């Protein structure tokens, strides 16, 4: 057993109140809460749209910025700044890394971002975000086209000033097409990509 100061709403940090706890139970509870937070908020994709939160936020914000395939590219740094300021306050590196991966044809079978500039190779990393440019790829339109039709739920963003979709209204089975890889706390995922035509053919067969 161990003791710690109570942090209940009725007790202030300096009132000297002590409560007995079971260390093993506290560790178990805290670990599960941390694991759930990592799984839900960062590491593993949602099966409905096949995207991790940072990927979903990038595509959503790029759609909000009007970065369609038929329009010009903008600096990647601008996209990263918008995503970080509005939706994902976890540092620019994680956002740019996710943006780059979604633009690499050797990382995704169906890239979601159309990159302009040095987005890296299997043997070398990309240029800094101030040197590269990006816009949505054609495939991303099928992920974001129905956002204004009230087909998915929206939640408040991290500071409650804006809203973001809980999932994108994906018109393609992105999880199967692009696969996924992620390591969380106590679990991981590693799904291989599949051919889009074959996946759609299999879906039509199941529907029939």
Describe this structure in words.
The chain is α+β, with helices and mostly antiparallel strands and 208 residues long. The protein has a domain at 50-172: Topoisomerase II, domain 5, CATH 3.90.199. The chain has helices at residues 23-43, 53-64, 76-86, 92-103, 138-144, 174-178, 196-207, and strands spanning 2-5, 18-21, 74-75, 113-116, 133-136, 154-156, 163-165, 180-183, 188-191. The strands form 4 sheets. It has a 3-stranded antiparallel beta sheet. Helix 2 (53-64) packs across helix 3. The longest helix has 21 residues, at 23-43. It is globular. It starts with a strand and ends with a helix.
The proportion of residues in beta strands is 15-25%
Shape-level CATH architecture of the domain at 50-172: Alpha-Beta Complex
Helix content: 25-40%
Sequence of strands across the biggest β-sheet: 3-5-4
Order of helices and strands: EEHHEHHEEHEEHEEH
Oligomer: single chain
Shape from CA axes? globular
What's the average pLDDT? Answer: 89
Q: Note the total helix count.
A: 7
**DSSP summary, beta strand count:** 9
Task: Output the keywords.
208 residues, alpha+beta, Topoisomerase II, domain 5, 3-stranded antiparallel beta sheet, two-stranded antiparallel ribbon, 9 strands
């Amino acid at each position: 057993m161990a003791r710690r100061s109570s942090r209940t709403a009725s007790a202030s940090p300096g009132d000297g109140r002590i409560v007995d706890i079971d260390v093993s139970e506290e560790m178990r509870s805290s670990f599960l809460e941390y694991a759930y937070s990592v799984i839900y908020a960062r590491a593993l994709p949602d099966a409905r749209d096949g995207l991790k939160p940072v990927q979903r936020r990038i595509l959503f914000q790029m759609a909000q910025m009007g970065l369609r395939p038929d329009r010009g590219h903008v600096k990647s740094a601008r996209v990263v700044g918008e995503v970080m300021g509005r939706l994902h306050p976890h540092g620019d590196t994680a956002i740019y890394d996710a943006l780059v991966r979604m633009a690499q044809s050797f990382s995704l079978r169906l890239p979601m971002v159309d990159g302009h500039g040095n987005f890296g190779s299997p043997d070398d990393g990309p240029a800094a975000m101030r040197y590269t440019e990006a816009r949505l790829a054609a495939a991303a339109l099928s992920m974001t086209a129905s956002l204004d039709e009230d087909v998915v739920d929206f939640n408040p963003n991290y500071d409650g000033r804006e809203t973001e979709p809980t999932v994108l209204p994906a018109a393609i089975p992105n999880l199967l097409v692009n696969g996924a890889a992620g390591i969380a706390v106590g679990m991981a995922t590693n799904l291989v990509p599949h051919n889009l035509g074959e996946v759609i053919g299999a879906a039509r067969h199941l529907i029939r």
